[in-house]
Description:
This protein is mainly beta. The protein folds into four domains: 2-41 and 173-383, TolB, C-terminal domain (Neuraminidase, 6 Propeller), CATH 2.120.10; 43-169, no CATH class; 395-545, no CATH class; 551-673, Sandwich (Immunoglobulin-like). 2% of the residues lie in helices and 49% in strands. The chain has three helices and 56 strands. The strands form 13 sheets. Strands 38, 39, 42, 43, 45 and 46 form a six-stranded antiparallel β-sheet that branches. Strands 5-14-13-12-10 form a five-stranded antiparallel β-sheet. A hairpin with an 8-residue loop joins strand 30 and strand 31. The longest helix is centred in the middle third of the chain and has 6 residues, at 440-445. The protein starts with a strand and ends with a strand. The relative contact order is 0.09.
Amino acid sequence: MLTTIAENLGAAIGSKYLPNTNQLLFTEYSKGALSVLDLVAPSTGVVSSGTTVIKGTWIFDCETGTLGGDMSKIYDIWWEQIDNVKRQMVPMAGVGIVNLGPVDFNSLTPAALQSLSFGSTPIPGNNDATNHLTANDVFAVRTKSGNIAKIKVLQYGYDLKIEWATYKFASPCHTIGTGYTMPEDVVTSANGLTAYVTERTGSLVRVAMNNANRNAATVIATGLQAPHQMCLDEQHNQLFVVEFANPGRLIQIDLKTNKQKVLLNGLNNAIGLLVSSDLAYAYISEQSGGGKVTKYSLQGKAPVVLATGLTNPFFLTWADASKSSFFVAERDPANRVTLLKTELGAGAAVQVVTGTGVRPSSVVCVSASQLLVCCDTMIQKTDILSGISLPTGLFKGIGLVPWNLVTAAGYADTTTQPVYPYQFVKNSPFGGVLSLQFNHPLASQQGVKYYRVLVDATPRMDTWWDLKLNAANGKYEIPVEFKPETKWGKDGCYLMHQPGVFYMNSDLGLIMNSVSVANGKRTFTIEFYTDAGVKVQQQVVFVMIDNNVCTAAMDMPEIGGVYATTDCGMLKYNNLADKLSIRYVASHPTLQATYSWRVGRAGKGPVPGVPECSVDGQAQLAPFTFQKNVGALLGACTSAAFYASVYVAARAINGYGRQSQYDRSLTIAFALTH
């Protein structure tokens, strides 16, 4: 379900989510402006409020507080009576609804109401034990006019007595900087004080966020060819940008000296850009050449095409903190958002949003489920997990892996549900820091107040911090420490998020470093308690923990039992038929790793007739042996320099991405001479 949260924009293109202030920063191409969208806008007052009775089969308008019996009229909700038992509260077309349970009606501020996730599923109101609309239950409605109402059930029956209050809000969009010439993309420093903007006319500028007009900006670069998406690397004080030209370039800009360095040439109308954390790869969308996204090596390796046949692919956005997948906006006529993995074979492209507004340019990932999409004249919000079969209980899973996609052996297997957007390599073990996710609103509805997490019957005693929403201004700026309590003689009891209180990581329930437990299949038991200490539910999940480190080792090459020297790396051969051998190790204690082996001749780019020797496969305990005739390696040369490298990649994930800290690699150089 796509919801328009801003409209009448001047071609919204690049965007950046500012989590602490809960805002979206974006460029407006045709207006030459930098603008901000407040995801929690200030309330301008109450539209209507009071108490009333919604008659059975009647509809209710939250804007005016009036009832109606004519379904042809435009109202907000319908108290539907299906038969003598089945009843439900139905949102009308375009209206959103969410049930909150028996929360404090008065504590639900306008800011808190805007932080809710609205859907289109009716609230069950059956005249039996499944009824959710019992006395003191509270639900919220996003009205047909875009206002938000909170509604409390005072008395349940065929006729439903309610109390309501409907709030209106100020325009969430405001311009913070003007005077730009066709601005394309914007990125900000980590502290949010500085922004960088590309202009299609060829400039890159830096500007302070508190004085963001173009005439206050500092020019960093000029003469670029239609610069588009950027990646900022603050650690090394540099920025990367692609050009929408054919041929176009990937350019690295030193932000101290403003010096430019061309990293890639010959790009075909490049638009989108992401750079891996280790700066080894660039992921680039190109509109010419079949609409593709390519993984380009910045270290001389061959490029890998991750997807083709995309429709006018535009900007790219990381989908998770580990940078193992990313979203790409596809413009008209497709008008959709697609999710891609950074590695081939890690899952096919998944179309996560279809039917967006015309010409989507960029997306931001506010949470695992919520995306904001910048289209030409509007910004839309959507829940990309809506409609996907996910766990309905209180425990949701580990990171982005739902617990029902963890096998009985403890491995993640998201491939059993291919429509799920966050795909991992089949049967991946878990490792590193694990984030356990919970359905806190549902806990409130079911009277659950505390929970415990036990690993092999030992309660976890972890602590962590998160930021709480300031209900007065809609910003995530209040630090809160989560730590265990001892309740009813039980250690490791954590308090569920309380109704009306919102955190930046809304589902988070535990952060644990899995190295604190032994490798192997562990039993995770999650217990749920009422305020009185009555255990009402329990969930058991088996989790395979694997924090083992890979091994990469290599001997120097040898010919006929004579090894290359380690000092100079020289190895003599007698004739071209001599066989060169290299013994190497690509191993992992539980074999939960893959490896890549490369041997290549030194020089600029690929050598005709002398292909790089490459092998990709499964790690094993026994050593491997590479063998090749000298003549096949040398080609037309009589002497040449070579490299040999092995990279061993652990398969363990933390629920967001692969745990590359357990990888190991080794590279050697040698020369063949006669």
